[in-house]
Design brief:
With 419 residues, this protein is mainly α. 89% of the residues lie in helices and 0% in strands. The model has no long low-confidence stretch (mean pLDDT 79).
Length: 419
Amino acid sequence: MTWGFVAVGGAILGSAVLSSNAAESAAETQVAGAEKSGETALAIAEKQIAAQKEALALQLAADKENVDKQITLQQTTLDKTLKAQADAAAAGQAAAAAALNQQIAAQKAALDAQLNLQRELFNKQVENLSSFKQAGETGQAKMMDLLGLSGNTSAPGYGSAATAFKVEGFDPNTLFEQFNAKQMEEDPGYAFRLAEGQKAIERSTAAKGGLQSGAALKAAARYGQEMGSQEYQNAFNRFQANKAFQAQEYGNAFNRFTTERQNQLAPLQALTASGQASAAGQAAAAGSLSAASSQALQGYGAGQAAAYGNYGAATGNIAAQQGAGASAALGNYGAGMSNTYAGSTAARQSAYGGFGSNLTNIYGQQGTNQINAITGAANAAAAGQIGSANAFSNALGQATSVYGMYNQNQLLNKYLTRT
């Protein structure tokens, strides 16, 4: 009977071992399946991530291509705009320069015409006055010869107009002499009458025979005194009349001398005056030419200044318009570039955001799948271990029960068989 219990216990333990092995094998199979499921989920996640990366790269490449195209288009538009503005500015400046050259040429032509007219008028005036000027120079040269001022000593009549007036054999200072007794005695009328009276007295006395008598001497003395008294006034009057006659003749001679000199020099002076007037006319003509030329040059300068001022203003406006256009074009270019980069940034941010969100979902799903696989494997392993443990536990319980029954039977047999 003992061996029967042993056999039963052995069978129970064998069954427990088999049940435990079966549970462990089933658990290992479940763990392998869970691990396979985890590996499959990881492979799927990696493919999904690769697809997301490829999609992101394609999006970024498309965005870069779009940005490059926009930048190229904007740069081309800017270049064309700047070139068009530069061409327009160059054309405007060329037109302004052509207008300036035309204005300067027109002003130069007007200046030349004015100066030529002024020179023509001046030359005509000089031509009209040249004969008078030449005659004046000839008259002046002759007058200088006559006055002895030219230095041409061989000239006919050289210095003749510069000689002092004089009357040969007459001293004009005698006109200022005072009447005196000597001059009375030298008076021809007084000496004649005195001599004739003396002769008459001498003839009368001689006839009477008393030439040297006292009566004769008294008569001669009385006659001389009477003659001196009578003839003094007559001699003085004759002296005065003679001086007046000499003065008049001297004056007449001086007037004739002056008239002759005046007649000699007057034509030459007239010619000189004509020459002076001609020279003055030529000087006035030169002054008029100078004034007119100066005025014409001033007008030319003012016209050129105005032309250059207009040219400067025109080129300044052209440059300002070109600068404003270039500034606007560059501003539009900058705004377009900014919008392009802003759009690209937004697109990249959206792409990266979507990529990150998709990666998050993929990694989240992968994590969930891996957790589920690991949990399943753990649960399967745990279930296998529990099943094995339960099999051993049940087998041990059954064996224990059999062993108990065996012990009870032994006790019972001992009890029954006691003596």
